Structure formats: C-alpha cells, structure tokens
Here is the input.
Amino acid sequence: MRSRCPPAIVLAVNILSLYMIYIWAPPEKLLGDSYRVLFIHTPSAWVCYLAFAITFISSILYLRTGNLRWDLYAASSSVLGILFSTITLITGSIWAKLAWGLYWNWDPRETATLILLLAYLGYVSFRMSISTRDRRARVSAVLGILLFISVPLSYFSAVLWVTLHPMPLLPSVGFRLGVEPPILLALVVSMLGITLLFVWMFYLTLRIYGLVDGVEGYVERR
Amino acid sequence: MKQKNGLGRIVSFLADVWEILLKDLRLEIRRKYEIHSVLIFALLSNLLFAFAIGPSNPNVREFAPAVLWMSILFISMLCFATVFVREVDKGTLDGLRLAPISAQAVLTGKTLYTFVLMSLGAVLIVPSSMIILNYTFNSDGLLVVFVLALGILDLSIVGSTVSSLTMYSESRGLMIPSLSLPLIPGTLIPSILATGKLAAGATLDAVLPEIQLNLGYLLLVSAALGITFEYVLYD
Here is the structure.
C-alpha cells in the first residue's frame, strides 16, 4: 500500500509554512516575535483533538464490526495524539512564560489539556497490559470511547471557567479573530502543514502497528 | 416465555440490580476487613492532609473542601480495586456472565455497591474533617448531603467501570489509579467548588452550575456505558 500523502508534499508544505511563520509573517504589534510560537501551538492542539477523535470513531467502529483494522487505527492515532498534545503543552508553556510570566499558571485550558494527555497515556499503558489481541481491542475500544469525554472538556474549559487562555473560535468568538491577514494566512498554512504531517505520520504508525499485530497474531496462532 | 412489557422490564431490571447489590454487600459484611480498611483509611487520610497543610495554618478552612474530596478520592481507590477484580480472583466472573442478568444491571448493581461503601467512608470523613479542620456547613443540610451524594455517585460509576476494564489487565493495581484519575476531574472539580460554596453558606442557586455539571457528567458516562458495557463483561 502506498502512502496517500506523499512525503514530498508534506515536506514542501511544511517548508513553506516555516518560511511564512519565521520570515514572511510580520512581527505582532504588541507581542513582537514571541507570538510565532502560536503557529506551532494552535495547529498541534487541533491535530491532537483530531487524533483523539479518530481514536474515538475507530473504537466505535471496532465494537460495531469486530474488524481489528479499526483497533490499529485507534492505537496509532492515540500515540500521535499524545505526541501532539505534548507539543501543545510545551509550546503553550513557552507562550505562557513570555506572556504571563510563568510556565505553568493552572489555567483551566492548560490543566484540562494535561489531564487529556495523562488520560491517553493511561490508555496506551492499558493496551500494553493486555496480551490477548481480541480482548485488548474490545476493552480498549470501550476505554477509547469513555476517554473522549476529556476532549470536549479540554476544548470548552476556556468557556466554562475563568481563563487566561484566548477564547476558542467556536462558540464564543464566532470566527472573528481580529488578527492581520498575513498572520491569519501563515496560521492557515501552518495548520495545513501540521495536519499533513499528522496524516503522513499516521500512515507510518499504522504500518508499524500492523507489523507488530501481524507478529502477535502469528505467535497467538502457534 | 412470556414477553415483558416496558414496566415489567424496568421492575425486572431493578430486581436484578438489587440482587447484585445484596450479593456484594453480603460478601462484604461476611468478610468485614474491607469495610474496616476503608474506614481506617478514611480517618488516616484526613489526618495526613491536616498534617500536610498544618493544623495551625490560618487558611486551613479554605483548603477544607479540597481535603474532604481528596480523602473521599483516596478511599474510592480502595473500593474500586475490588469491585470486579474480586469476581476474577474468586472465579465467579463466569457465573456472573451466565446469570440471566443484563450487563447494565450488573454495572448498576456494582456502582451502587461502590456508592454504599464510599458513602460509609464519607459518613466518617465529613464529620471528622469538620472537627480536625475546624469548619462547618452553613447551608441547608439536605443540599449538602445531595451534593456529596451526587459527587460520590459520579466517582462510583467511573470507578466501577475502570475496575471492570482493569480485570482483564495484567497490572490491575497500577491501572486503576492511572485510568480513573484522568476521568475523575470532570466531576471532582465541580464537587470541590460546590462543597466550598456550601461551607460558606451558599443556597441552591449558587451551586446549581456545579450540580448541573455533575448531573451532565453522570448522564454522559451512563449513556456511554449503557451502550458499551456489554462488550466489557462478555468475551
């Protein structure tokens, strides 16, 4: 099976994105150059939500069909979700230090994102603690559905509680960003670049998990 | 076999839940050591938190709701550890699977059992923390009981579910806190906030947002489990 997202396209879009982030986009009026970390932070947050949504949907599809392919989808996307939520937290902390003076402010959004990361780390270690493939897939699917409760909690934490974090686009701001067009364009390209990077990495992770699953299946049959 | 109508099904479901609850409570009363452990641990955790904050700390009353819920959380970990794992250890899980009882009735019965066990701990924790940390609830007593019971019920359903999932794991003891702690803040934070408000004399209107959040959480988790729990119980 060939990759549906050729690495050359991923590389080209990401080089363009890096150029737009660090050279093309002008410094922000109030924040200077420090705001550029948000071009990595925001797309990573979006991709981590996307990855956990894939885990959720794949878990439902596994329970409906019993096809182990969906379990591989759920496992692969959860690992990438962990990676991108870690990037979100690190870049968010860098931004917090620059803007608010501390790396960690116990802001509801950053705390909810940390809980999200811990929840899915628990999911991955839970998977590792069950050796039978079918049983692991079935029970992990239920957990994958339950853990998804943390995703809307993380997203809406900025609306539900008093927060330092900027309001999310929906439902509170309603897509009125109030930023200069070049900055918005750089953000859109960065979103596209990191999403494509996720798709490519998802394909690779899926292949690795498929190989591991093949070996496990062979061992179980013996 | 005669098909049951809607009301008949509900009555039958409640009877099944009652049977599961009674079975676990009977076992608990026979063994006793688990209730003892929960009660002793409840008192100890209260004392430990008081030592950690420092009983003479002038802000100790501000920490009281968090200390109360942390103690409840600590005893919940003890309760979660046995709910389903006991069935595996005693070899009675297959009996539970073969019984003419729905998976949802099993989960509800186990959740209520956890709720009863944790409530027993809370009955000891709440007055002891009020004495140790020198605070009182200046609100309607029934409202305080309702807020505490709702929070404990939320913890119970999460804990019973996690316990049912971890019975298949090869590292059950480690998995229970790893899986339940990230799921709990959704109910724990509103419970702490509501308890703090009630200690300060708040009315129903003031704690309504937290009650709504906890009820919403309960409904959400119950709905997800209503659909998926069969897959956990049956191989």
About this structure: The interface with chain A takes residues 161, 165-166, 168-171, 174-175, 178-179, 181-183, 185-186, 213, 217, 220-221, 224-225, 228-229, 231-232, 235 of chain B (CB under 8 Å). Residues 6-233 of chain B form one domain. The two ends of chain B are 26 Å apart (CA to CA).
